[in-house]
What we know:
RNaseH-like_sf, 6-stranded mixed beta sheet, hydrolase, 3'-5' exonuclease activity, 3-5_Exonuclease_domain, Nucleotidyltransferase, domain 5, disordered N terminus, about 45% helix, exonuclease
Amino acid sequence: MEIPSSYKLCAATAALAVGCTVSYLAYKRRGRVRNANDVFNYLTVKIVTTEESCDAVVAELKKRCQKHRALGFDCEWVTNNGKRQPVALVQLSSLDGYCGLFRLNTLKTVPLSLKELLEDESIYKVGVGPKDDSKYLHNDYAVELRSSLDIRHLAEYCGYEPGGLASLSSVLLRATLDKSWRVRCSDWEAEELSERQKKYAAIDAHVAIKIFALLLEKLEENYSSYWELGYNTASVWTRLYDYCSKYADVGYKTKHTIKLKDHAKEKDPKIKEPTKRYKLTKRTRPLYNNGYLQAPDGELLCICDNRKGMWFVNKGLADLIKEDPLTVRLKFEPAGRAVGDVGRYYQLEKENKCVVCASTNHCIRKNVVPREYRKLFPEIMKEHSSHDVVLLCAECHQMSNIRDQHMRVSLAEKCNAPLPSSSKDRFIEDMAAKKVRSAARALYHANDKLPEVRRKELEDTLLQHYPDQEEITLELLKEACSIPVVRENTDYESHGIKVVDYYFKHTSLLQLEQEWREHFLKNMKPKYMPALWSVKHNEERLKVKWDEGRLTTEDLKSIGLSTF
């Protein structure tokens, strides 16, 4: 009765702070990172709402994966008032782009054909975090998902950063997924799924199998280009078991997750956040190197970090013009150039000092808009923008964090978004499991010293937890001694999501962003902010993109606007 406790983590990355999409245009010389809707416009998507259509789609999926023995897999569900509802949608995709979207909320149960496919050990179901999905399918529909495989195992083995599906897609497939919380948290139980929901669901499953195939190629070390249909790489699939068997049905745990579990289990009172509050974030070298990144004609695009500038040079994408100060000239035309004050902001050299008091001692990055909100913003508000990252000394950083809490309280009241009472709210102890583990450890380590009555009580506790067992064995004790006692709290409500949702519906996300900037200026009264730093920077930046035709009405809708 194992209680899985792997967590899907969400990760966001910061790109080069410049209006042009330089790094994405050039990365690995594969050209522009494209929208996944354009990259995967060849998909055949089948919506399954009846048992008859389910049988037909399952039969087609089986036919198409006879050679590859793997399908892209994902699940979606609705969360109401912090409580997870039964899985509403199962997504399966073949490598050649045939996708079945099985609407379990409409089917009410899992048809036999789909159940047999999900439980077929000879076909791998690949994705990110399938172990969690398998737990939910088991709890909701008594389906035993078999041969699930988390592609992060293979990504890590191949030397890639094992991030989420979106980051893996960007790096390996050069495709940007739609990971807006508006679609991720949408109504998957709606009578009819929107076109955006259908594309999102189908692409997520298909991207998983495409990444899986590409990583298998990397393991073979015979191919460096994208893998299309596999007709010339049969050897990869004949050795599928050798590559994947050890990862089948094994959850992927990040180092961060393990630390959380260990911390929660040990509950060491000596380990407190203040002991390492600044230890890991104090800067030991300047944040700003103030290197120069130029367009092919010599026009200054932006000030950049020396490492970023040399990255372009080392990849053969730019020429080194001067070493001190570092000056790098791109060999390709960027998507955009510096326009107005928005563009000039990124051309100005930055100072390595606290923006409040001008101290140069151990300055720390400060996110003016806290990450718990910013991570939920659509990509168009975050990409290539370092505007809200400023430097503060340790003392000012601490004071700013304290004053940020007042803003959070205000937002909680305004948006009906209660703040968690403590960091433990998201993860809770399973008291029943804790009691079982405690009993098992007592019997395992001190059985001879226990009074007969107490020993009998502990044995009864174990047998009640394992109703299919008739006696206590050494194997049973070992299993019970290691059962997890910390689990994710399904009733946990995200303050950040509720606040972002409120502003999306009532004003716009730009308004929330601007209020945090105004809060920082009002409460910290910084005297040394970068020149041209503006409360309305993002609004002005997006207006430039809109005027240049680089934004769509859908982009504006994603931030709560209809037009500028």
